[in-house]
Structures are given as structure tokens and as C-alpha cells.
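The instructor's notes for this session suggest beginning with a concrete chain rather than abstract definitions. Hand out the sequence below and ask the class to guess, before any prediction is shown, which regions might be ordered.
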Amino acid sequence: MSGEPKRSSPTVSHMLGEVVWVLSQSSLHKHFAIGDLQWMVMPPILANQFRVFHAGQTPVGVALWALLSEDAEARLCAAVESGAGARLRPDDWKSGDRLWLVELVGIDNPDRDKMSSVMLDDVTKSVFAGKRFKFHAADPVTGKRAVREMTA
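After discussion, reveal the predicted structure:
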């Protein structure tokens, strides 16, 4: 028997809090409404399709991924191409076998680009290892978003 308290797995509400903290510290995400959590955050948390990155005890980044059906993938691409944004239905997140990195969010700080690179490297070497996946990336000059594909 040990004198340390028994550690339990983080609860859904704890993980939701960490993800919301990261989103609230990102200039690109802090204006989302609470209702957006139902389609953007809860499905990947409940399906365990997320990773929170920490600096010490503080959450500093989050990755959300989906396994999309052909139909969900087509709707996602069409929405982004039209400028409407990537809004998935809750049942889309685990509807098929097409792996997508839907969000890779870091808190606003001077090392954000480096942090994003570290997070992407971590996800590709662990969660996505040996798998092909897609994501949307913005052109740094035009801002236009396009589908990118990688094999981890």
C-alpha cells in the first residue's frame, strides 16, 4: 500500500475544460460560441480522438481528428472551399476510415509556429504512425485553404 492518493483517469469534463482553455487562448478560436462545442469538441473527446499538449501542468495545444466517411469528407471539403468553414456533424467524427486532422490549435504565443510543428510531429509519430491522413492548410500568402495529405 502506498501513501499516494489513487490517481484516476481524467474525466470528460476535465478534458473538455482543458480543450476549451486552449481554444480560449487562440485568436482564431476564442470567438466560438458555447453551442459550437457540441459539434467541434465533444464528439472527438467522447470518441477519444484528441490529444492535449501541456507545458508543465498548463494545456498549450490540442489536436482533434476524425475518421470520416466518403460523404462526410466531401461535405467537409466543400464547406472549406466555399469559405463556410469546417463544421462536422457529431456523427461524422467516427463515420468511416478516412483519417483527418481536423484541428491543430496552439495558444497564442511567440513560439506558436514551433509549437504547432512539435504537436504535428508528435501526432504523426504516435497516433497516426504509418497511416495516411489529410488536413486543411492555409496558403501563407493568399490565405486560401487547400487539402494536404501526409503519410506518417
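Then share the key points. The mean pLDDT is 89. Helices lie at 12-24, 37-40, 42-46, 70-81, 112-125.
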